[in-house]
Amino acid sequence: MEFSIVKRQALIVWLYTLKHLKTIRKYGSLHYVSDRLKYAVLYVEQDKQEEIIKILDKYHFVRKIEVSYRDDIDMTFKDAIPNRIDPDLAPKNEEEEQQSNFIKSLAQTLEVTKKMGNE
């Protein structure tokens, strides 16, 4: 028995009423249901996507069906903003450098006085 990955597609099924979720559940994997906005996210096999859309569209409780575009969106954000300098890696200005030096020297003097107090 060989394991194979099945390509899935998310469908957003807008409903008039949530009473018929059991009916929708037979066509794929029900991922999320919004009670307030009355929609469900249903994952179906990509090969059977068009057939399932046609079947679901015939039901009286289905308002609209949308195909999710999540697979089409490029999710690599490394160079999304060109010439961006990471704040953690950016060079510090003189004032910030002086403040950090002051804090370091203050911490060192506190350590020395603490050691002297313990002896």
Offer a few descriptive terms:
single chain, 119 residues, alpha+beta, four-stranded antiparallel β-sheet, 3 helices, 4 strands, 33% helix, 23% strand, elongated
- Classify the secondary structure makeup into a structural class: alpha+beta
Hey, roughly how much beta strand do the residues contain? 15-25%
Element string (H = helix, E = strand): EHEEHEH
Which strand order spans the largest sheet, edge to edge or round the barrel? 2-3-1-4
Described by the principal axes of the CA atoms, the overall outline is elongated
Main β-sheet, in a few words? 4 strands, antiparallel
**Strands, total number:** 4
* Poorly predicted segments: none
Give the count of helical stretches: 3
Give an overview of the whole structure:
The protein is of the alpha+beta class and 119 residues long. Helices cover 33% and strands 23% of the residues. It has helices at 21-25, 49-57, 94-118; strands spanning 8-15, 29-34, 39-45, 62-67. Strands 2-3-1-4 form a 4-stranded antiparallel sheet. Strand 2 and strand 3 form a beta hairpin. The longest helix is centred in the C-terminal third of the chain and has 25 residues, at 94-118. It is elongated and about 80 Å long. The mean pLDDT is 87.
